[in-house]
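Lab notebook, bench 4. Still working through the backlog of constructs that have no structural model yet. Next entry is a single chain of 172 residues. Request: give me the C-alpha cells for it.
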Amino acid sequence: MKTLIYLFIIAILVMESCAKDDTTTKIPISIKIDCLAVPDKKSDLIPVNIPGQVVYYTYSRLIVRGAGRYLGKIDAEKSFYVIKSIEFFTNDVGLQYIRNLGEGKVVGTNGDGFEFTFWSVESLDNFKIVGELKTILETGTGIFEGCSGTLNIVGSANNKLWLCVDGYLFFE
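Model written out:
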C-alpha cells in the first residue's frame, strides 16, 4: 500500500510538471528572427538628406519575410515596419551613419505576433546595421500575449536588407 501511495504521488508530480509551459512560469523565452525586408512600393516616400549629396528618397514601409525561433514562418502579408524618421549623423571618429526610427508588426503564419518600436543605425561606409526593437505591451496575440522585451537588431543593407533580431521575451 505504501508503494502504491508513493507511485500515486510521483504520477501527480509528473503530470503537474508537464502541464506548465514557459509563458505561465514567467521564464524568459529566447527568440531569434532572421528576415528580409522588402520595400512596399505603395508606401510614401521619405527623404534621406546626406550633406554634400543629392537628396534621395526611400520607401517608408517595408514588408518583412523570413522565419524565427518561437515565431515560425513570418506571414509577409501581415508583417511590416514603417520608418517614421531618418537622420544623418557623423560619430566622434568621423564615420557617417543614418539613424532610422519607426514601428512595426511581426506575425507568424499561425496568426501569433506582436507590435514593436525600433531604432537602428546604418553605416554609410560598410552598410552594416545595428539597433534595438522593443515590443509594445499588450499588443501580443496568441503565444505572444503578455510579452515584453528589448531585442537586438543586426543586419546589412548591401544589395538586400537582411536583419537578425535576437533576444529574450518576458511574459506577465
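Notes after review: The first strand starts at residue 29 and ends at 39. The two ends are 43 Å apart (CA to CA). Flag for follow-up if needed.
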